[in-house]
Structure prediction request, 353 residues.
Amino acid sequence: MMSSGDLASEVEARFARIRDLVLALGLTADELASVDAVRTLLPAGNRAETEEISDRTDSAPHSRRRRRLVSGLLVAATVSALVIVFQWPVGRADLLAYWFGIPVFALERQRCLMGVDSAALILDLFRPPVDCSICRDVTAVDRVSNISSGTFETRYAYSARPVIVTDAMDDWAALKAFSFEFFRRIYTDDSPVLTSESNCQFFPYKTDFKNLSEVFQMSDDRARMSDGSEPWYIGWSNCDSIAANILRSYYKRPYFLPDLAESSKTDWIFMGSPGYGAQMHVDNVVNPSWQAQVIGTKLWVLEPPPECYFECQAQVKVHVRPGEIIVLDTNKWYHSTYITGSEMSITIGSEFD
Prediction:
């Protein structure tokens, strides 16, 4: 469980993010402190100082205009909260479509509204509340083997309880075949995956790569960091049907999935060098997913959503090793990854319904 001190630190950190965004609009710290909603959050000892700031800023017409701007933003945030939590007076999709000028029917087809960090903020804002039963008694990630599909369905498939299956890849050819060079070879020069066209998605995380084509232009030395270059980590969705047929000849449907469950037609691949990974985030996909660790080792850090801080353990950490599959509802669990050891990491996964 998160201590009161840790919770206070988390609240302060989130308020700091909001403050930084508002200051980026051009307001000064004094002008921000003069807003009534902000004054309410200040300790009592600072209120006299805040009143003095308010008196000073009230005399400046431009400051009053800025204060009205901030007040408007706070009203907009309140209305947005009603939409997000209660879907009143309109639905979440309608609000997001209005903000970005996208027709509601086209919203799901938008591949990328903004950068990864900004998108994470939007996803966090529009994330529906989670039932804290998903994490209330989770203090470690279960590791299982030889589990029947019925048992998996009952305990893990749709409960959002994370689990690692240790024996689901024993007969996969991918364990010996997958490599940086393998993935560079399976895509033709005109593949939509390379330039993130159509419905393909590419995640550069904090690298400078603009698309998968640039990644595959790396030398083998750079890919393996043998030339002393910076670590790198990227991910992409495979929307190339020819490459999909090749990929699926190297792995099988995980044996533990429920009999009636179907995996998504889209494979997700994540690849990178030791010392890097994905920052803490929550996903916006339809279903739970499995992710197979083919090469290398990843440290996963799982955190419950903020509404569960008082009921669930603050963090759960687990290493996923070659030959193991982690099953996780990434729509509900915040998660980050970090590649450990000395070997490149390659994972492949998919959603299931």
About this structure: Residues 302 and 316 are 5 Å apart (CA to CA).
